[in-house]
Design a protein that fits this description.
Largest sheet: 6 strands, mixed
Strand order of the largest sheet: 3-4-2-1-14-13
Number of strands: 14
Shape: globular
Structural class: alpha+beta
Low-confidence stretches: 1-29
Mean pLDDT: 86
Number of helices: 7
């Protein structure tokens, strides 16, 4: 894969919509050779052991280059390194406390050039919440922001964590993709009924302001919203009371790319296939595709 340090002069900006746009027929591999493009999937799977059949299905059929996982909900000793290796993926995992855990799966034809388990130089803060790797000159981070409490109290350190991300990015300009569950809906457009959720842990003014600061400080772009300015793009639905069937969703899983990387981003879509069917997570995967630069 060529480095992403050179700027592409043209961009496709292809918008394929959200309804099943990223699905692949069963048994069909979509693996692309290293050197042509890179496909990244971000997914809060809400327990890797509970969701293993669906993750295995995704890896076998989609063959993405990189997968950023959130809420693995397992210790490192129970993490399926061996099964992933057999599927052609090497894994970096940061087990979490209080139900967190993040991982990055890298297809074996890519080489990890750098790995970091620290956020704002703090390994403890990053534990189970932030993991960063560099492949082919592209820095990719998997993030799981604490959900916060419904009563508005910041017992989980949500704001402090978001502020640490902003500090971590301040003054650093590089090809970067941050993908994961931010547990913040950036605007009212990202909420099925803003009036019902006003001021909650996903829509609080302070949380939204800090996410905006992360984007500004890191010179980042909300990739999905850039490509789909009018669509809802919900990524998470409560599993109770038929919220998914009614599309009572939230867009809280984000892909933030550095501004000078966005010309390479040709696609960003929600894959509804993995929010349906057998034992789904309450989140749908977010798929991002970046075109490589011609020599």
């Amino acid at each position: 894969m060529e480095s992403f340090h050179r700027r592409q002069t043209d961009t496709t900006g292809r918008n394929v919509g959200k309804e099943m746009a990223s699905e692949t027929p069963t048994g069909t591999s979509t693996e692309t050779p290293a050197g042509t493009r890179i496909r990244v999937i971000s997914w809060n799977l809400n327990g890797i052991r509970a969701r293993w059949p669906r993750l295995e299905e995704l890896l076998r059929e989609q063959r993405p280059d990189v997968v950023c996982l959130q809420e693995t909900r397992c210790s490192d000793s129970h993490f399926p390194y061996g099964k992933l290796h057999d599927l052609g993926y090497e894994a970096q995992h940061s087990p979490g406390r209080r139900g967190g855990g993040v991982a990055i799966l890298i297809r074996s034809d890519h080489t990890v050039q750098c790995r970091s388990g620290a956020l704002d130089r703090d390994h403890t803060l990053a534990e189970g919440r932030w993991l960063q790797v560099t492949i082919d000159g592209l820095e990719i981070s998997s993030v799981y922001v604490p959900a916060g409490s419904l009563d508005g109290e910041d017992d989980w350190g949500k704001l402090a964590f978001l502020e640490a991300i902003a500090r971590h990015l301040d003054g650093e300009s590089r090809p970067r993709l941050i993908a994961g569950d931010f547990n913040v809906a950036p605007t009212d457009q990202d909420v099925y009924e803003p009036g019902w959720l006003e001021g909650c842990n996903h829509t609080g003014e302070a949380e939204r302001k800090t996410v905006a600061e992360i984007i500004a400080e890191g010179e980042l772009v909300d990739v999905y919203r850039r490509l789909h300015p009018e669509e809802d793009g919900y990524t998470c639905w409560d599993q109770r009371e038929g919220h998914y069937a009614r599309d009572y969703g939230l867009r809280i899983d984000l892909a933030l790319a550095s501004e000078h990387l966005t010309p390479f981003v040709s696609r960003c879509d929600v894959n509804h296939a993995y929010r349906q069917g057998y034992k789904p997570s309450d989140h749908a995967p977010l798929e991002i595709e970046l075109d490589a630069v011609a020599a």
